[in-house]
Amino acid sequence: MSRRSLISEALAASLNDPAPAPVAVSDTNPATPRPNFTNKRLEAFGEAARIVKRPTIRLKPSECSIWSGNARDYSLLDEHRLRSLIDSILAEGGNRIPAVVRRTPQGELPYELVTGTRRHWAIAWLNANHYPDIELIAIIEDLDDEAAFRLADIENREREDISDLERGANYKAAVDRFYGGVQLRMAERLKISKSQLSRYIALTEIPPLLVSAFHSPMDLQAKYAEKLLPLLRDPIARGKLEAAADQIASEQSFRRSGDEQPIAGSEVLARLLKAVTVKGRVQKATIAGASGATVGQVDKDQQKLLTLTLMPSDLSTDDILEALRPVIEQAKIMRSRRR
Question: What sequence ranges are listed for the domain ParB-like N-terminal (predicted)?
Answer without folding.
Answer: 57-157
